[in-house]
Amino acid sequence: MQDSETRSKPRRSDATRAAILAAARERFAADGYERATIRAIAKDAAIDPSMVMRYYGSKEGLFAAAAEIDLNLPGPMELRMQPADHVGRSLVAHFLDRWERDEVLTALLRVGATNPAGAERMQRILKDQIGPVAAAVCPDPAEAPRRAALVASQVLGMALARFVLRFPLAVEMPREEVIDWLAPTIQRYLTAPNP
Amino acid sequence: MQDSETRSKPRRSDATRAAILAAARERFAADGYERATIRAIAKDAAIDPSMVMRYYGSKEGLFAAAAEIDLNLPGPMELRMQPADHVGRSLVAHFLDRWERDEVLTALLRVGATNPAGAERMQRILKDQIGPVAAAVCPDPAEAPRRAALVASQVLGMALARFVLRFPLAVEMPREEVIDWLAPTIQRYLTAPNP
DNA sequence: TATTGTTGCCAACAAGCGTTGACCAACAGG
DNA sequence: CCTGTTGGTCAACGCTTGTTGGCAACAATA
């Protein structure tokens, strides 16, 4: 075992590690935590199940590694650069982009629904990544957390309908139309005065 | 086996059947499909696991029976009785009520996230129960399905945050405040002109 | 009372799971 | 050329799962 933080000579096993992680993300996204078996993940990565244990310790450890997520949201400065009434729109577009590109988000959503550890991780993401955005643009900073939660509820709800439950009506709706509908909602949750 | 539709002499086993169903709903709601084991459900109902099989055929059959859901939404006439700009508010209140009272809804949400059969059942509910509401109040009936999907995305998103993931910020938000925030969103999704 | 169906428990099955440790092949440094 | 480390396979462990069939007690009917 070696510190993965410090840059050291690349190991021969790095490729295997990456293959396992990629397969794990795919399986977790498609099947959720319980039905994504280590054996299936190992088969996808074309290695032995025991390697997964060696490199990630346990199934929980593998999931923890696979669910490392950075939403890559704009920082406070970038937020204030654009017109205030445009934040909702650009945020919705960003989320949609993010979700389409990265199956890990779908995986986390699936796992969070049945696994306490997954739910906790989602909570951290809300607090650490969406919270600051709300704090930067909402009128009363004390209200930021609640507004962040509201934003999360609409964004996660659309992600659920579109990428997890795959409601045909939500899947077929063109990206631009989704944005047109959701943007005002997000905008209001962030910046409207208390109703 | 006997037709449960036709009214026949009540069986002695009806109590057991009901106990199993109640325990199943609780477990499915708390743990999701895979982690809610037949053995655990049977123990909760204080009977033998094999009884579950006898009365419901299989685990899937049990879930199908446990997830029979009627959202009890207002009919077209009732909808037109109240002022048109009040529909959003009363709908949100109704959904919140429904979710707080009936753990089956949480169960279905949890199961739908990882189980294809669960997802399909949610889809049917959207189509058969939310769809008509949208059709009754939205300006262009042809658009009703899409608007129903939007409504579902926000309602399910809040249910996810509040009852499944249990984000503290969403859980602690008082019921009335949730309604105040969501009502305008739902109202807009239902009745606003295409954005 | 004798018979027949219902209700329930018990013990076991086969399959699948996460996880472990022994073992082998290839490489690296001296 | 050895020797220790790394990358990897294999076979098995202990356990839990959904599911099944046999068997005893009871109720109902005739």
List the helices and strands and how they pair.
The structure is a homodimer of 195-residue chains.
Chain A: H1 14-35, H2 38-44, H3 49-56, H4 59-66, H5 76-81, H6 87-101, H7 103-114, H8 116-137, H9 144-164, H10 168-172, H11 175-191
The structure holds a DNA duplex (30 and 30 nucleotides).
Explained architecture:
Chains A, B: Residues 37-56 bind DNA. The structure is a homodimer of 195-residue chains. Chain A is mainly α. Chain A is built from eleven helices and no strands. Chain A folds into two domains: 14-66, Orthogonal Bundle (Arc Repressor Mutant, subunit A), CATH 1.10.10; 76-191, no CATH class. The longest helix of chain A is centred in the first third of the chain and has 22 residues, at 14-35. Chain A is elongated and about 55 Å long. The A-B interface holds A 31-35, 109-110, 112-114, 119, 122-123, 126, 145-146, 148-150, 152-158, 160-162, 164-170, 173, 177, 180-181, 184-185, 188-189, 195 and B 31-35, 109-110, 112-114, 119, 122-123, 126, 145-146, 148-150, 152-158, 160-162, 164-170, 173, 177, 180-181, 184-185, 188-189, 195. The first copy, chain A, binds a DNA duplex (30 and 30 nucleotides) through helix 3.
